[in-house]
Each structure stands twice: as structure tokens, then as C-alpha cells.
Amino acid sequence: MVDTRTQPVPKSGVESHRFAEKDLYRLAEKHGTPYYLIDEATLRRKVNEIEQAFQEFKGAFRVAYSMKANFNPSVIRIFVGEGILFDITAPSELYFLLKCGGTPENVLYTSITETLAEYDSVLKLGVRRIVVASHNGLNNLIEAAGRAEAEVEVMVRVNPEVHVKAELRGSLKHGKFGMQLDGDNQDAALPVLKKILSTPGLKFEGFHFHLGSQVEDQECYAEAIEKLEGFILRARKEIGEFGVNTIDIGGGLPVSYGRVVPTPKDLGTKIVGQLNSLMESLGVKFTLVAESGRYLSAEAMILVSRIVNVKDFGENRYVYLDAGYNVLLDAALLKHEYPVEVIPGGPSTYPKTVLVGRLCDPLDIFPTSSRSKLGGAETGKLVVFRDAGAYSIVMNMPFHSQPKPCVLMRNAHGNYLMARERQDVHALFLEEGGNLLDGKPSTD
Q: At CA 409, angle to CA 329 and CA 373, rounded to 5?
């Protein structure tokens, strides 16, 4: 694929986000359906929207992309070209980033398991900024840093335990992520902070929290920042002064899908003044990091499917697609109401049009939103799922022996490029062990 880092984005000429119907049909005839289509201009625009939302912050500000949302190399390369940070949680994600031209210096490594082997691996590859969330994880990092003879910048991941109105919550009493701010056991934030500050070879960098995904009530950010400030001031009274270079407020910026949600600008308006006051209170000018996976990638990609059958059942019309939730899993897992559009559209003559997938599973029915336009649904027409760029291709699965669809990209100059080839069914057969039909001796 063309390296987009060397190609400037045109200021005009290519419409962001929308695609011409004739192009969608041409691509369908050439590459088959279903297929995904990414828009480079939208990816870049979403970065800019977050940066603009925090432009009144008086310190340095960085956007971080959570690679878990969409790790297609074409997407990674574009974000590398934007110069942003990357929130990574596995050595395999680091492999993707480095192969796409990213650098370890732009990595925030936030492990969930915090194993010694994991830290050995990422430190060997040059990562030096690590987020820890447990006493045992810190011990593993200390051992790995000693073996690598590396000075590591360590951030403490905390759980502010605030109420979050979100699709997926990562705070309150959900203890998988982060450490308690007011706990007194070895896995609480204060004992871990003390150990970081007293360990040679470790440099305390700052704090990190993540409140959830699709956060709709932004008051939780303000409450979390207030709690973090209180913790820092209490910790300074107990253990003395320490600097804070970075505060990472995590992700959660919501995508609209089918309803009105707060924008990044709304969040900036809500908390930038509070963050500026926090800098004054602490007497330090820290770097602010806002992460995003869903917001940066969702609106930049569509899924294109074809209507292969229709059935009238009572007053309803059932529209059968050649795609199922195996290529858009959040439709089943989270009941995401993706904006869906029949191309070309027409009048709606049925009280209800139901979109169903090609899988033999009663859950394979696509929820639709108020933005959906299902009129004119007939066999042979295309159906477009918008805002499908997050948590879709990363969750592709071969239910019914279905190969992965291809991924295409419209670059900033309006050219359509192949970002991932359609998987061949024979390749899937081999991937599933088809070449081992006669068995293979184990190595034990």
C-alpha cells in the first residue's frame, strides 16, 4: 500500500466520509461483497477535532490512538503520519506499530496482565513509557527494567471509582482496570507510587485513568480529575514533593451512531479550565493525553453488503444480506444501531424492514438507527453500514467457514487502494489446520 505519510491531505476536492454510489457499485463488482471501505481524510479529520477541542489547555496536549479499535496497517500508517501517541496493550500490537513505521518513543504501554515476559519483550524493543496497575505488575517491571538496564518512565493507572454513564464502564466498582485512590493494601495507588519513587532506574511520569467507552455524561471526567487532584495533594503531604509530567484521561469519546452524543469540543469546554487550575494547584506544567480508539476510527469506515434475498412476513419485509455479525460483531454483542442505508434508496412501503444476516443464528439481526434509510430494499442492491470503523475488522471471525472480507481505502487524493485482500477459503482451511488432517507429532 502507498505510504500516506509522504502525501499531504488535499484541502479540497475529496469529500470526507461520503462515497459516490457509482464507486460503491464499481468496487462491489470488482472485489465482491461484503467489503470494508476506509476514508483517510476522515481519519485525519478526527485527530484534528480532538486536538482543537483541547486547544485552550495551557500545557502540552497529545492525542493517543488505542490500537485495539482498528489495527489495520493502513490506519496505523496514517496515524503515525499524524505524529500522535499510541495506546498499546500487547506485544503483538507493538509489532504492528513498528512494522508500520511507528517508534517506541510514541508508545504508552498499558498492559492488562503485566507479566514479566511481556515487559521483557517490549523493553527489548525500546518502549520506555509503561503504565502499571498492580503491585505484582510493578515488581515484574522492576525486574525486567533491571535485566534490560533501562530507565523506565512509569505511570500509575488509577480507578477513580466515579459513576459513569457509558456503554461500557471502566470505573466505579469495576476493579479490572486501575488501582484504588484511597485503598490501603499493596495494590492501592499510594503504596505503588511510593515504590516507584524509591526504586532506582524508574522515573515516575504521571497518572492514567480510563472511565469507559461511549461516555455520554461528561461530569464523570470532572469528578475523576477532582479525585485525582485530592490524591496527589494527600500523597505529597505523606511522602514529600514529586513531579507529575503526564496526566492521561483515557478514552470514552462517544460516536453518535444513531443518536445525539457529546462532542470532543463539549468535553474540552467541560474540563479544560479545571485541568488548567490543576496545573496551578500542583505547581507543574504537565502534558495532557486524551486517548481514543472508537472516536478516531469509527466514522472513517463503512461496511458494504449486498441484498441477496427478501421475504415478506405479514406486514414486515425481511431483507437478507450476504454479511452477518461475523463481520460486524458489535451489532450482536452491544446491539449497536449503525446508520444503515440502501443504495440506491426508494420509498418505504412496509411498516417495518428487518435487516438480517447470512448466519444460521437468531441473533444475526442488525439493529438500525433513526438515521437508517431502508426504503427501496430489493435483491441485488447494496446496503451500507456507516460508522463501522471501530471494533469490526479486529473481531472478524470465521463463523460458517466465512473468510475475512477485503478492506479498501480511499486515500487523501481520492484513489481507491487495497488495504487487506479478501481471504481465500482455502487459506482459511489451512489456517484452521487443514494441512494437518493426518495429524502432526507433538513436541512434548
A: 55
